[in-house]
C-alpha cells in the first residue's frame, strides 16, 4: 500500500531532525531498540507482526515536493517559519541509509526483548520511530489477539469479520495481522488483494430481509452460489431458519450440490448449535457445517466449546479487529547506543527510571532463544552483538538480579534477521509473506509450554540479560546515578 511514510510521524521527530542537522550531528550514529514491557491481554506470549509494512516504509520513504512545501509553510509558534530552507533542501534529497534488524513476522515474542533494532544516522533513526511503533505495536497486538482466539477455537477455522468495527483504515492491517496470528481467512477484500491472504464470507440478514420470506431468500442464495452456500438462519426464528436451510440443503443435494453450512449469529450460540446439529443430522445433512458468530472472543469461544457446542468454524469481528480488551501493546523505541560515525566504537546509552521496568537496556542488542531437547523453549537471552556472551550462558531477569536461569548446553537460535541494509530492504520474500508468517506463528506456539499458553494466569517466560550485559548495565546505572 502506498503511504506518505515520511510525514507519518510526530512533528517533534522532524524538529529534532533539524536540531541534529543544525548541531552538525547528522552523521552521528545511533542504535535504537524496539520492545514492549507487558504481556498483552494478560497472556503468556505475543505474536510479532508489522515487519512487512516496515519494509514497505523503507522502500517508499522520501519527502516529496508536496511534503516539503507543506513543511515549509509551517509557522513557529513564536514567529517565523518552523523549518529552515536549508534543512528542507536536505530533507528533499534524503534517502534512508539505516540498517534494520527485526524478528520475522509470526515469531513468538516476550516482554523486555528487542523485536526491532534500527542502526544508522541518528536523524534517520528518529524520523522513522513513530511509524515503526505504529505498525509493530498495532499489528503485534492484533496478531496476538488472533492467536488467542484461534487457540480457543481448537483447530476450527476462524474467519476475521472485523473491518466494519475496526479503527478506520487500520482495519486493513488488522485483517492481515489476524491471519498472521492464525485466522484462516478474512472478510476484508482489500486486505485479500493487497496481502494475498484468503477471503471468505457468508451473507447478511439484509439478504433475507430483502425477500418476502426466508425460504425464498435461501433458495435464491443457493441458486446464485451453489459452491459457496452458507445460510444465515437467525433473521426471524432460528429453529424455523434451520428448517428452511434443511429444505434448501435437500433440494441442493437433489441437484448434486451441497449446502456448505449454516451461520447462527444471535441467541445462546452453543445451545442453538446443538439443536442445529441434531436437526441437520436427522435430515441427513451431516456434511453441513455450522458457523457461529456474534460478538465472539477467546473467552466466549472457550466457554462454548467447554459446553460442547457443535461448531465447524467461527466468524470473529469486533473484539478481534479492535483488540477489544487492550487498546495498545505499549511498545517503545529506546536509544541504546551511539557512536560519532559509522565504524567508530559504540558507547552505551541508558535511560534511568525509578521503576525497574522502565530502566532501558544499553547496547546493540539481539536475542538468543534457547530450546530444550524436546523442542520446547527454555528461555531468551538478550545480548550485545559486539561482545562475546559469557560462556556460562546464564540469563538475569532485568527486573530482579536475583532471578537467574542457566541455559548452558542448550541449542539456541538468534532471533533478529536483517530487514534493511544501508536503507535497502534485504528481507527475504518468505519474511514478507503473511501466510508464511502464519505458519511461523503456529509452529512457534507449538514450542510453548501449556503453562504459557493458558488464558488464566499463565507462567512468565524467562527473558533475561546475558551476564556481561547485566554487569555493564548495572555499572552504567551506578555511574549515571553518581555512585562511582
Ligand atoms: N453459549 C454461550 N456462552 C457464552 N456466551 C454466549 C453464548 N451464546 C452467545 N453468547 C454471547 O452472548 C451475547 C449475546 O448477545 P445479545 O444479548 O446481544 O443477544 P443476541 O441474541 O445476539 O441479540 P441480537 O439479535 O441483537 O444480536 C453475545 O456476546 C454472544 O457472543
Ligand atoms: O459480532 P462480530 O464479532 O463483530 O462479527 C461481525 C458481525 O457483523 C455482522 O453483523 P452486524 O453486527 O453488522 O449486524 P447484526 O449483528 O445486527 O446483524 C455479523 O452478522 C456479525 O455478527
Ligand atoms: O461474511 C460474513 O458472514 C460477515 C462478514 C462481515 C461481518 N459479518 C459477517
From TrEMBL:
Entry GO MF terms: nicotinamide phosphoribosyltransferase activity; nicotinate phosphoribosyltransferase activity
Pathway the protein contributes to: Cofactor biosynthesis; NAD(+) biosynthesis; nicotinate D-ribonucleotide from nicotinate: step 1/1
Signal sequence interval, chain numbering: none
Lineage top rank: taxon: Bacteria
Record PTM text: Transiently phosphorylated on a His residue during the reaction cycle. Phosphorylation strongly increases the affinity for substrates and increases the rate of nicotinate D-ribonucleotide production. Dephosphorylation regenerates the low-affinity form of the enzyme, leading to product release.
Gene3D superfamilies, per database record: Aldolase class I (3.20.20.70), nicotinate phosphoribosyltransferase (3.20.140.10)
EC numbers: 6.3.4.21
InterPro entries: Aldolase_TIM, N/Namide_PRibTrfase, NAPRTase_C, NAPRTase_N, Nic_PRibTrfase-Fam, Nic_PRibTrfase_pncB, Nicotinate_pribotase-like_C
One GO location term (cellular component): cytosol
Keywords of this entry: Glycosyltransferase, Ligase, Phosphoprotein, Pyridine nucleotide biosynthesis, Transferase
Pfam families: NAPRTase, NAPRTase_C, NAPRTase_N
Domain Nicotinate phosphoribosyltransferase C-terminal: 367-468
Keyword Kinase: no
Family statement drawn from the similarity comment of this UniProt entry: Belongs to the NAPRTase family.
Residues of the Nicotinate/nicotinamide phosphoribosyltransferase domain: 160-338
PANTHER family referenced in this protein's UniProt entry, alphabetically: NICOTINATE PHOSPHORIBOSYLTRANSFERASE
Organism: Adlercreutzia caecimuris B7
GO biological process, one term: NAD+ biosynthetic process via the salvage pathway
Record bears the keyword Zinc: no
Function of the protein: Catalyzes the first step in the biosynthesis of NAD from nicotinic acid, the ATP-dependent synthesis of beta-nicotinate D-ribonucleotide from nicotinate and 5-phospho-D-ribose 1-phosphate.
Domain Nicotinate phosphoribosyltransferase N-terminal: 7-137
Reactions the enzyme catalyzes: 5-phospho-alpha-D-ribose 1-diphosphate + nicotinate + ATP + H2O = nicotinate beta-D-ribonucleotide + ADP + phosphate + diphosphate
Name used for this protein in its record: Nicotinate phosphoribosyltransferase
Amino acid at each position: 500500500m502506498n503511504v506518505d511514510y515520511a510525514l507519518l510521524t510526530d512533528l517533534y521527530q522532524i524538529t529534532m531532525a533539524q536540531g541534529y542537522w543544525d548541531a552538525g550531528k547528522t552523521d552521528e550514529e545511533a542504535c535504537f531498540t524496539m520492545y514492549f514491557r507487558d504481556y498483552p491481554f494478560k497472556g503468556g506470549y505475543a505474536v510479532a507482526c508489522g515487519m512487512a509494512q516496515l519494509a514497505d516504509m523503507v522502500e517508499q520513504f522520501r519527502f516529496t515536493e508536496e511534503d516539503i512545501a507543506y513543511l515549509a509553510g509551517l509557522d513557529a509558534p513564536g514567529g517565523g517559519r518552523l523549518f529552515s530552507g536549508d534543512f528542507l533542501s536536505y530533507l528533499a534529497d534524503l534517502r534512508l541509509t539505516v540498517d534494520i534488524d527485526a524478528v520475522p513476522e509470526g515469531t513468538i515474542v516476550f516482554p523486555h526483548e528487542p523485536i526491532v533494532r534500527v542502526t544508522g544516522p541518528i536523524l534517520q533513526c528518529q524520523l522513522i520511530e513513530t511509524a515503526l511503533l505504529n505498525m509493530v505495536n498495532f499489528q503485534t497486538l492484533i496478531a496476538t489477539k488472533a492467536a488467542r482466539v484461534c487457540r480457543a477455537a481448537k483447530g476450527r477455522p476462524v474467519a476475521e469479520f472485523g473491518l466494519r468495527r475496526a479503527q478506520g483504515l487500520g482495519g486493513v492491517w488488522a485483517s492481515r495481522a489476524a491471519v498472521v496470528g492464525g485466522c484462516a481467512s478474512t472478510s476484508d477484500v482489500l486486505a485479500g488483494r493487497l496481502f494475498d491472504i484468503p477471503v471468505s464470507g457468508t451473507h447478511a440478514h439484509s439478504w433475507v430481509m430483502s425477500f418476502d420470506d426466508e425460504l425464498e431468500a435461501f433458495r435464491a442464495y443457493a441458486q446464485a452460489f451453489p459452491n459457496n452456500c452458507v445460510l444465515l438462519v437467525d433473521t426471524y426464528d432460528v429453529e424455523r431458519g434451520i428448517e428452511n436451510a434443511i429444505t434448501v440443503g435437500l433440494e441442493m443435494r437433489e441437484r448434486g450440490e451441497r449446502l456448505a453450512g449454516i451461520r447462527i449469529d444471535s441467541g445462546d450460540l452453543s445451545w442453538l448449535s446443538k439443536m442445529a446439529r441434531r436437526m441437520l443430522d436427522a435430515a441427513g445433512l451431516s456434511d453441513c457445517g455450522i458457523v457461529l458468530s456474534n460478538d465472539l472472543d477467546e473467552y466466549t469461544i472457550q466457554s462454548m466449546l467447554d459446553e460442547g457446542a457443535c461448531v465447524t468454524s467461527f466468524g470473529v469481528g469486533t473484539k478481534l479487529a479492535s483488540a477489544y480488551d487492550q487498546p495498545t501493546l505499549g511498545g517503545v523505541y529506546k536509544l541504546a547506543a551511539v557512536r560519532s560515525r559509522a565504524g567508530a566504537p559504540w558507547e552505551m546509552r541508558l535511560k534511568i527510571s525509578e521503576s525497574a521496568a522502565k530502566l532501558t537496556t544499553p547496547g546493540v542488542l539481539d536475542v538468543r532463544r534457547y530450546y530444550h531437547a524436546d523442542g520446547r523453549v527454555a528461555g531468551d537471552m538478550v545480548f550485545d552483538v559486539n561482545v562475546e556472551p559469557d560462556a556460562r550462558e546464564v540469563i538475569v531477569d532485568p527486573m530482579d538480579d536475583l532471578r537467574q536461569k542457566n541455559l548452558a548446553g542448550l541449542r539456541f537460535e538468534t532471533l533478529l534477521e536483517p530487514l534493511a541494509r544501508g536503507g535497502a530492504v534485504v528481507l527475504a520474500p518468505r519474511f514478507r509473506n503473511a501466510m508464511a508468517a502464519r505458519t511461523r506463528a503456529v509452529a512457534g506456539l507449538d514450542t510453548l509450554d501449556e503453562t504459557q499458553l493458558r488464558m488464566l494466569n499463565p507462567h512468565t517466560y524467562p527473558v533475561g540479560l546475558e551476564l556481561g550485559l547485566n554487569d555493564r548495565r548495572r555499572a552504567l546505572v551506578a555511574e549515571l546515578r553518581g555512585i562511582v
